[in-house]
Amino acid sequence: MKFAWLMAPDTYWDEKKTFITAALESGIDHIVDVSDAEKIRKLGNLTIISPDEDADIVLVGINGEGDGTLELPESLEYSRDAEIAFELKGEGKRVAAYVEIRSKAHEELARRLGRTVDYLILVGEDWKIIPLENIIADLQGEDVKLVAAVADEEEARVALETLEHGTDGVLIEPAEISQIKAIAELLEEIESEKYSLKPATVTRVEPVGSGDRVCVDTCSMMVPGEGMLVGSYSGGLFLVHSESLESEYVASRPFRVNAGPVQAYVMTPGGKTKYLSELETGDEVLVVDSKGRSRVAVVGRVKIEKRPLILVEAEYEDRRVRTLLQNAETIRLVNDKGEAVSVSEISEGDRVLVYFEDSARHFGMAITETIIEK
């Protein structure tokens, strides 16, 4: 998952606090700072990256520590930064190296450090794509996260998308607070997973008795057209609409998806699934819209109650899938026009949106294996 860190501005505390607070409110909770760690910790549950050996992530190569921001040593066979990083790693600490790329020799130093540290922060005054490509390509097999220092959204996009994979993260060095929010929104856009939804034809709708059904209440507000991918078969998940629409029976609950029975699958980030019964507060699920665009939502609570169920079966080309839902007017699927349609109104011949997957599932992860679900 792509991420962003904030370089705390070198200014008076009240202004610095404003930038850090804006970052935290945008979901950025890693702060690089060399002077105010104790004050920063009081602002929230933040991860501090600094040269202090008691920091959450110890930083080398900045503020006079090592040679990353100083003149290069006569020979790259010896690097004070690499020596410090190696010693810290030996003590079980997480380490980040900060290297300004000003020459080919600095690229070599970055590669050397990248084979030791957990994070490699790459800085360029006049950032060029080629040095970044070289370092990404050379370190792609190493266990290191690459972080590019950027000033704005445009630089962040270049860094995160270079060589298709891009850097793992960006270090924001903003001049204005608005740049923090813009980069946070860019990260959400890049991390959004797209799902190809197919119009499956409904072949059967039938009440089947009662069972334990699951309501998933998230910490996000959903809008009409959004819901979650849920189904009895991992190979075919229906787009179950959120309760974001008004009803004559109950008020809208735009944070909720009345998802289905306890054994059903729900799509989670990274192309994985979980059983609905496994979800609990703090877990992440995917909110998906009728175009297949997704975003991550945090589960606030899960509510399981015994309710009457209805079976919906649908077919697309030669594939037939089923799911069970609560038999109630407020429970909706999404049709091929992107409209929410109640299970009480769905009938054979209607077309609803389904995500089909060729892989089987093993502990929620897609695998290449033959499994029959019926």
Helix content: 10-25%
Q: What is the number of helical segments per DSSP (H or I, 4+ residues)?
A: 7
Order of helices and strands: EHEHEEHEHEHEHEHEEEEEEEEEEEEEE
CATH fold name of the largest domain: TIM Barrel
Q: Gap between N and C termini, in Å?
A: 34 Å
Structural class: alpha/beta
- Unreliable runs: 63-78, 360-365
Q: What count of structural domains?
A: 2
Q: Strand-residue fraction?
A: 35-45%
What is the CATH-assigned architecture of the largest domain? Alpha-Beta Barrel
CATH class of the largest domain: Alpha Beta
Radius of gyration: 25 Å
The CATH H-level superfamily of the largest domain is Aldolase class I
List the strand order in the largest sheet.
1-2-3-4-5-6-7-8
Number of strands: 22
State the major sheet: 8 strands, parallel, barrel
Indicate the overall shape.
elongated
Family: Belongs to the archaeal-type DHQ synthase family.
GO molecular function: 3-dehydroquinate synthase activity; dehydroquinate synthase activity; NAD binding
Keywords: Amino-acid biosynthesis, Aromatic amino acid biosynthesis, NAD, Oxidoreductase
Function: Catalyzes the oxidative deamination and cyclization of 2-amino-3,7-dideoxy-D-threo-hept-6-ulosonic acid (ADH) to yield 3-dehydroquinate (DHQ), which is fed into the canonical shikimic pathway of aromatic amino acid biosynthesis.
